[in-house]
Amino acid sequence: MSPRSARLARLSRSVTFSACHRLHSKSLSDEENLKLFGKCNNPNGHGHNYKGEELISILAGGIDPVSGMVMNLTDLKQYMQEAIMEPLDHKNLDKDVPYFSEVVSTTENVAVFIWDSLQKLLPQGVLYKVEVHETEQNIVVYKGEETTGK
Asked: Which chain positions lie within coiled-coil regions (predicted)?
């Protein structure tokens, strides 16, 4: 295969952010929320350090034959700053991020928020997945999937 032939690669970049939140659904009573979310329903909230390789965006695409890159990492760093760090880092997700005023701030929904935010900035079709490690044991991978109904 010549160097000019199309090759696909996956590129990942990780970021670190800290945020607090309270798991609480407006659709449930206080008692139901406490039963469902336990200590994560604390009225004063609780925090997480999403650090190191704990929040990862992965792009998939063709390796440009001229630049040799799927995407310039400087550009990707700026997109992640705008889509993730600015809205989420050192924030109370429920009070500071309008998206979570109506959506429970679970790690699943944080992953969806990040996916949607990155999709607005990245070239179409390049975002492959978003992986959010809330803790070493709790990890969510989101690939833009939607359910088709029950």
From this structure: none
Backbone angles phi, psi at 42, to 5 degrees: -45, 125
Which pLDDT belongs to residue 121?
A: 95
Q: With beta carbons less than 8 A apart as the criterion, state whether 69 and 77 touch.
A: no
Burial of 66 (0-12, 13-18, 19+ CB in 10 A): exposed
pLDDT confidence of residue 134: 87
Question: What is the helix (H) or strand (E) element at residue 114, kind and residue range?
Answer: helix 107-119
| Rounded mean pLDDT, 23-48 | 96
Distance from chain centroid for Cα 75: 18
Catalytic residues: 40, 90, 134
Write out the CATH class of domain 8-19+47-142.
alpha beta
Token representation of residue 68: 């040799």
What 3 state SS string does 26-95 have? CCCCHHHHHHHHHHHHCCCCEEEEEEEEEEEEEEEEECCCCCCCCCCHHHHHHHHHHHHHHHHCCEEHHH
